[in-house]
Amino acid sequence: xxxxxxxxxxxxxxxxxxxxxxxxxxxxxxxxxxxxxxxxxxxxxxxxxxxxxxxxxxxxxxxxxxxxxxxxxxxxxxxxxxxxxxxxxxxxxxxxxxxxxxxxxxxxxxxxxxxxxxxxxxxxxxxxxxxxxxxxxxxxxxxxxxxxxxxxxxxxxxxxxxxxxxxxxxxxxxxxxxxxxxxxxxxxxxxxxxxxxxxxxxxxxxxxxxxxxxxxxxxxxxxxxxxxxxxxxxxxxxxxxxxxxxxxxxxxxxxxxxxxxxx
Length: 263
Hints:
Distance between the termini: 48 Å
Strand content: 15-25%
CATH superfamily: NAD(P)-binding Rossmann-like Domain
Number of helices: 8
Radius of gyration: 18 Å
Strand order of the largest sheet: 3-2-1-4-6-7-9
Helix content: 40-55%
Shape: globular
CATH architecture: 3-Layer(aba) Sandwich
Number of strands: 9
CATH topology: Rossmann fold
């Protein structure tokens, strides 16, 4: 297969996206990174082209897609997090998170696939989460967006393989990215005590999480493989959790999760 060189990384201004963009640029890939407002990025990566992208705005997605039709490798990384019990999360917030984490990504992928198909080459790497492999209490909407991404990726992998397009999932564990976690609960909620304990543990796990560079190295390794697997748990406790899910009954995994988060 002809070597792929032109990369688009969404959410490249910080965290995992920035680490991926920086490493690939260092290794000689031609990298375009996106941000909601590239002009506000203080520490830009040398040699990187930055373009604006708002995952909630279909017109923004379409404008970007028109500019990057030569993309060989699409790395869907941009995303947001949310904490709150389902019954208390407003429907508009549920739709908002799905637009950012799933529908925006889907629209961008849909816009770039035709050119890849015509060239008979391409790669789509979707940065998901271990939260898309098993559910976690008090993040039902976030987990749902990642479960949806898992299904989309595995289906597209089979659909696009005949055209030389590879689709791969990266499933990070806890990574020290400072990702925005919108809190959607109040102190008078019946969930408050348990949810507060959960948030404290989750925040600490993220703060002490693996360096985003570990995910970047995993992405680079995947790009160098001729036949990559469907999914790669990476960083933090992801490999251990993936192993547990494979060998333990689902009920036992749920028990360990509730105990871990005092849920």
